[in-house]
């Protein structure tokens, strides 16, 4: 004869019973065996734990910065929670529902650890935060023709405006101007997170002698008194650049030996504060001269 006592008010006379406890806890389980002459009992303490389960629920797994993600901890029989949000704010939480903000682009792991009576369980996922586009380009000029090199970041499509009524949507177009003059060349870069624009003012001049062809680019324009100047040409003589205020007073000047391409950064605020307004630049090269305007805000 044998009988099992499971310590929860239930018993069984089967030799190998299967028993389901109604709730977690510690129980004294006893096996009583006997015959017509004697009986014996063996008891052991058995701890029954909860059926611990954990799952992360997120309302989105990707989007543009700044990105907000609502997280929910879906658990069974958990007594405590521990979240970690790499790259997010907040970086940690012990709450079941958490709203997290990601300000920068990247791929960020999320981890949730649920603890119960008999241990821990963990779930994880990754969130992808997409960057905004950044418009940028370089260029070279031969006579009236400009060849662009698109160096934009994170963009999927583009719109060029050459300032003469002509637009283009190719990646790095080549364009020929109808004549000399000052042109604002804009590049707009797009992706699903928005758009970005870079604008450069070019003064295009084409002389009869191709050795004397020159172009100048000032960007950004408008600016805060700190800007870039690029010169393109092939003049062997000295190149001199002067900047004047609207009263004709020279406020900056510099000269270089003739060269094919020159790039320099100018900071008009470095030595003295200059007021916002319109300024004039004059480029002198041999017997040639070109002038243009830019705006300080």
Notable characteristics:
297 residues; mainly beta; Immunoglobulin-like; 3 domains; five-stranded mixed beta sheet; 60% strand; rod-shaped
Largest beta sheet: strand ordering: 16-15-18-19-20-21-24
Strand content: over 45%
Number of strands: 26
Tell me, briefly, the overall form: rod-shaped
Largest sheet: 7 strands, antiparallel
Low-confidence stretches: 207-212
Average predicted confidence as pLDDT = 86
State the order of secondary-structure elements, H for helix, E for strand: EEEEEEEEEEEEEEEEEEEEEEEEEE
Question: Would you give the CATH topology of the largest domain?
Answer: Immunoglobulin-like
- Tally the helices: 0
Structure commentary:
The chain is mainly β and 297 residues long. The protein has a seven-stranded antiparallel sheet, with no helix packed on it. It has a five-stranded mixed sheet with strand order 6-12-11-8-9, with no helix packed on it. The protein has no helices and 26 strands. The protein has strands at 2-5, 11-12, 25-34, 39-48, 53-58, 62-64, 67-76, 80-85, 92-93, 97-102, 106-116, 119-130, 137-142, 145-150, 157-161, 167-168, 174-176, 181-191, 194-205, 214-219, 226-233, 239-244, 250-256, 261-267, 277-285, 288-296. The chain has three domains: 2-48, Immunoglobulin-like (Sandwich); 53-130, Immunoglobulins (Immunoglobulin-like, Sandwich); 137-296, Sandwich (Immunoglobulin-like).
């Amino acid at each position: 004869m044998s009988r099992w006592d499971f310590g929860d008010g239930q018993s069984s006379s089967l030799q190998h019973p299967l028993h389901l406890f109604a709730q977690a806890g510690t129980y004294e389980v006893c096996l009583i065996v006997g015959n017509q002459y004697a009986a014996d009992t063996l008891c052991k303490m058995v701890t029954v734990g909860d059926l611990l389960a954990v799952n992360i629920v997120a309302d989105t797994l990707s989007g543009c910065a700044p990105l907000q993600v609502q997280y929910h901890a879906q658990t069974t029989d958990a007594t405590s929670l521990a979240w970690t949000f790499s790259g997010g704010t907040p970086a940690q939480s012990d709450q079941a529902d958490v709203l997290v903000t990601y300000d920068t682009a990247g791929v960020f792991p999320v981890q949730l650890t649920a603890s119960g009576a008999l241990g821990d369980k963990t779930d994880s996922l990754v969130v992808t935060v997409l960057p905004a586009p950044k418009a940028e380009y370089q260029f070279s000029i031969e006579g009236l023709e400009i060849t662009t090199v698109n160096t934009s970041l994170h963009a999927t499509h583009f719109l060029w405006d050459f300032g003469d009524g002509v637009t283009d949507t190719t990646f790095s177009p080549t364009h020929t101007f109808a004549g000399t003059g000052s042109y604002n060349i804009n590049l707009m870069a797009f992706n699903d997170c928005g758009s970005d624009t870079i604008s450069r003012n070019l003064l295009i001049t084409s002389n009869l002698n191709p050795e004397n062809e020159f172009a100048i680019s000032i960007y950004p324009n408008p600016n805060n008194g700190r800007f870039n100047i690029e010169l393109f040409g092939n003049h062997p003589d000295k190149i001199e650049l002067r900047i004047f205020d609207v009263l004709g007073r020279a406020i900056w000047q510099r000269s270089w030996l003739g060269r094919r391409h020159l790039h320099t950064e100018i900071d008009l605020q470095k030595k003295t504060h200059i007021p916002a307004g319109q300024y004039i630049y004059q480029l002198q090269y041999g017997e040639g001269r070109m002038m243009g305007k830019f705006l300080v805000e």
